[in-house]
Specification:
Number of helices: 13
Number of domains: 1
Distance between the termini: 40 Å
CATH topology: Glycosyltransferase
Number of strands: 16
Order of helices and strands: HHEEEHHEEEEHEEHEEHHHHEEEHHEEH
Radius of gyration: 22 Å
Shape: globular
Structural class: mainly alpha
CATH class: Mainly Alpha
Strand order of the largest sheet: 3-6-7
Largest sheet: 3 strands, antiparallel
Length: 443
């Protein structure tokens, strides 16, 4: 009994210390995480398009046969965007029925042949839509338009963005693993098995055969990632190659589950090759990853922090990049109200543009505005070298959401797609809260 009396206070101290240490590791306080979780749910609800629902007077109602989730709420985005949905799917607020409908719709609209547009750009076999119209279910493979007939303006690339192919794979991976629905991979869609369609998507982007990295030039350029489709980037592409790395691992697991050990090993080896190539090809002296090897070959905050999240950058490489991001945060070149630039101000190409080549002016949209989508990746990265700074950045992000929360009505619109000062764009934007929430929750 005397031993128990001595031991009990000691055990209580250990328990208290464990709780304190656990709290230190969290990037958000409990109440802030709860706030963010509810906001994600409410934004997701606002982003749903129900069957026969009208979103805009310029378009008909949702005739796709099921619920769609668009990039944001209110009266914007009368279409289904693959990447925004796929990036938000792990938030936990999408039902099995909803996931299946959007997965099959994406598969049905995948291009089954090579074809040219009226502009002379092209749509390769295996290409996945950038977005899909709600009224007639027609796929729009290129950014910048809702017109099926008029799509393909070369300013958006000579072929569709590369990210959507890998997000299609992510959609399928999440669906079949979440609901043990591996049998769905054998489902016939327009004469092609779903699993075969995933491989067609994987094979669509042009690559350098030696490194496995996605590579383009002026003649076959495609957008590397839709969150910078207004930026001109050529050479080997970092962000798209990171997405390909993740897709390789996902396909390896899917084929393993389907009993095809040969293909499972092939994709696992491909992932290993891509991972090594990313570090060798894009890492600069500061530990950051360049966006590309030719046009707009600049230190990329989004790609670098995603590479840390994917565990592509590890050890000293990770610490070096994390320290650079930390210094960018401390110096005020990385963030505004907790939201993140694509590149640090000190890494701007020149005084007239953040990126080397852009369709939009400096300090606007994808050329220097601040975004909520990558906040979780960046906070996670900085936390490797300064936990307190990472928590401060996360807190600033939450504080801004609280101050301009769209649920207050009127002119309140947070989460915004992006902003710079008082210039704000697209209210009630889903990935601006869903993607950070996934990171903060899981960490």
């Amino acid at each position: 009994m005397k031993f128990k009396k001595i031991l009990l206070p000691f055990l209580i101290l250990i328990l208290i210390n464990t709780i304190i240490q656990g709290q230190k590791k969290d990037l958000l306080q409990t109440e802030d995480l709860a706030f963010l979780k509810q906001m994600v749910k409410d934004v997701m609800d606002s982003s749903r398009i129900y069957p026969n629902q009208f979103i805009s007077d310029n378009f008909g109602p949702n005739q796709t046969g099921g619920i769609l989730i668009r990039p944001g709420g209110r009266n914007s985005y009368p279409a289904f965007w693959i990447r925004d949905y796929a990036m938000s799917i792990q938030s936990g607020f999408v039902t099995q029925e909803e996931q299946k409908h959007m997965l099959l719709l994406t598969a049905k609209t995948q291009s089954d042949e090579f074809k040219f547009t009226k502009w002379g750009s092209f749509i390769p076999k295996g290409a996945v839509a950038d977005h899909i119209r709600i009224d007639d279910g027609k796929p729009i493979y290129f950014p910048g338009t809702y017109s099926y007939e008029n799509q393909g303006d070369k300013k958006w690339g000579m072929q569709p963005p590369f990210c959507d192919q890998f997000f299609f794979i992510q959609m399928a991976f999440h669906y079949v693993t979440s609901f043990s629905a591996f049998h769905s991979l054998n489902e016939n869609i327009n004469g092609i098995r779903l699993l075969d369609r995933l491989e067609l998507a994987y094979q669509m982007p042009p690559i350098d055969s030696i490194t496995g990295l996605i590579e383009v030039n002026n003649e076959n350029r495609g957008v590397d990632f839709g969150f910078r489709d207004a930026i001109y980037i050529t050479g080997k592409l970092c962000f798209a190659s990171l997405l390909k790395y993740q897709a390789s691992l996902q396909l390896a697991l899917l084929f393993q589950e389907m009993g095809d050990k040969k293909k499972a090993l092939m994709y696992k080896n491909e992932a290993t090759k891509i991972k090594k190539s990313i570090i060798k090809t894009f890492k600069n002296k500061d530990g950051m990853l360049f966006a590309s090897t030719e046009t707009s070959a600049q230190a990329d905050v989004w790609a670098t922090s995603l590479a840390i999240h994917f565990d592509v950058l590890r050890g000293n490489n990770r610490l070096k990049a994390a320290k650079y991001l930390l210094q960018g945060y401390i110096s005020g070149e990385l963030s505004q109200n907790g939201n993140i630039r694509h590149i640090l101000k000190s890494d701007d190409f020149n005084e007239n543009s953040s990126w080397e080549k852009s369709l939009v002016p400096k300090d606007t949209y994808q050329n220097g505005a601040y975004w909520g989508t990558p906040v979780g990746w960046v906070c996670k990265a900085i936390a490797y070298v300064d936990q307190v700074a990472a928590q401060k950045l996360a807190s600033e992000y939450i504080q801004d959401l609280r101050e301009v929360d769209f649920r207050k009505g009127g002119d309140f619109g947070a989460p915004w797609e992006c902003f710079n000062g008082n210039a704000k764009q697209n209210p009630v934007y889903l990935t601006s809260v869903a993607v950070p929430f996934i990171i903060f929750r899981d960490r």
